[in-house]
Design a protein that fits this description.
Layout lengths: L3 E5 L2 E5 L1 H12 L3 H20 L8 H9 L18 H18 L7 H12 L4 H4 L4 H15 L11 H10 L5 H15 L8 H9 L10 H7 L7
Antiparallel strand pairs: 1-2
Length: 232
């Protein structure tokens, strides 16, 4: 891995061929709102990880790539979106396939361990109570994404400052992110509702999408429908 540095949003971050390729790939598969969100999430996570002792020694390249590619499951071209998988899994699969493609071009740094690390960071980035206990790269990816919703005041130990936040947002504006995300998630509730029933996307659909309901699809519904006797 050849690593130098670059400045994005006023933050000095690693600059490697894989990171450059990931940014280009994400740009090609993201609308403007999503692209700005993933770039902010990457930079917020980098700032946070740099100041927390238990995250300082993480694989910076793996974190960067995971954060930059974490929303490929929202692919604006539709090419990376499956008919039967959660968007997080679509994103994780697309990122792993992308990185395997880099290996065929001569970058052998992405062994199976690092590929799995990126897959896990992306697949689990909305599962707070699971990803919080994963590897530092996964935690940093998650914290950066959370920071884009919660802001600096809720960063752990004040690890993201307002000066850092404002500089990043200036370069990558929010572009009505919340409204845009609501529309994307409600779109999944319309197009592949079966992937939303056991996670937060279904809750978004139930609140904001007329006609969408979780009735009959919750865990209590599944338990009550179980045909097996209690003694099984």
């Amino acid at each position: 891995m050849t690593s130098t540095t670059q400045v994005l949003g006023g933050i000095t971050v690693p600059n490697t061929p894989a990171i450059t390729a990931a940014i280009s790939y994400a740009r090609a598969h993201s609308d403007d709102m999503t692209y700005n969100h993933i770039m902010r999430s990457f930079l917020f996570g980098h700032c946070i990880a740099s100041k927390l002792p238990h995250l300082k020694n993480l694989d910076r390249e793996a974190h960067a790539v995971a954060a930059i590619l974490h929303d490929l499951g929202w692919d604006s071209t539709g090419e990376l979106i499956s008919k039967d998988k959660r968007f997080e899994v679509d994103g994780a699969e697309a990122a792993r396939n992308f990185l395997r493609g880099l290996n065929t071009k001569g970058d052998e740094a992405w062994d199976e361990r690092r590929l799995q690390l990126v897959w896990d960071a992306i697949a689990l980035h909305t599962s707070d109570t699971v990803v919080a206990h994963k590897e530092p790269e996964c935690v940093a990816c998650w914290l950066g994404i959370v920071a884009d919703f919660a802001g600096p005041d809720h960063s752990p130990e004040g690890s993201l400052t307002w000066a850092e936040y404002d500089g990043i947002v200036k370069e990558y504006p929010r572009l009505k992110m919340i409204a845009g995300i609501k529309e994307i998630l409600c779109g999944f509730c319309r197009s592949k509702p079966e992937t939303t029933y056991d996670n937060f996307v279904g809750a978004v659909g139930q609140r904001y999408l007329e006609g969408f309901s979780l009735e009959g699809h919750t865990w209590p519904d599944r338990i009550e429908a179980c045909p097996l006797p209690d003694s099984f």
